[in-house]
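Lecture 7 notes: from sequence to structure.

We start with a single chain of 320 residues. Read the sequence below before looking at the structure.
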Amino acid sequence: MLELTSNYTSPSTTFFLMGIPGLEVTHLWLLAPLSTMYVMALVGNSLILTVIWVDPALHEPMYYFLCILALVDIVMATSVVPKMLNIFWSGNGIIGFAACFTQMYVVHAATAVETGLLLAMAFDRYVAICKPLHYQTILTQQTMLGISMAIVLRATTFMTPLSWMVSHLPFCGSLMVPHSYCEHMAVAKLGCADHMPSNLYSLIGSSIIVGIDVVFIATSYSRILQAVFRLSCRDAQLKALSTCGSHVGVMALYYLPGMVSIYVAWFGQDLVPLPVQVLLADFYLVIPPTLNPLIYGLRTKQIRDRGWSILKSRLPGQAN
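Now the structure, written as tokens:
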């Protein structure tokens, strides 16, 4: 196997992504599901962006946040999946110093933005269901812009120090990254200086961000459920419960693998095999962008109907 080493850190330093260490024989088998999920993520999120852009009736707060979520999902998946496919197909895991840390920054900033968007969307649903008469006065354009800017600012404020700490480590030994992308802890462990400060910063920062968001999301949906159970119409109750249940399911798929992978890397390295840790981190970045368009987009009647009309107009023989 190719072995890369370095005596110092420089912009010309080259890392080598190993893919899934110990499961190299499965790389080719993973190409099909990974490619399928990536195509679904691109098509589904692009369709949502197109539908919301062309339909003025969808220019509302809920769809505004959904549009940003779709864009973030495309960026997050595209930042890692093409390189993963290259590794799994050809074994070419070489990645430059700048490219590695750019990927690291984009991936982790995108995940921080996404959790903020999930909180914003939960707040939107809370206002729409619990305070419908005040919806337009609470979620104004200025409010939405402020929420969006706060989400991005929080993500960049969190990621900039982390990326700086890891990128300034001296790398004087092996440059073989035991991962499918430049995950910060996997890269930091290759440094020949103390990487504990960056790891602690990541653990504490992630726990605070996710902890705060999950608490407020849970509070929003508990208030929504209280309002739903006060409804007299049984059909309205079932519809609201179905929507909330699907949203909570997607959030569980987003938060659980991400936090499990972080805590396992810290406390369960001897309990969970490295290949399982890498697979968990990989699919954590691919599954949410694949499912979000289905749960948040295609289950919404306005987007589903408009999207279907756009697809039919593009099919041969369907255009007027």
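The beta strands are 14-17, 94-96, 176-177. Keep this in mind for problem set 3.
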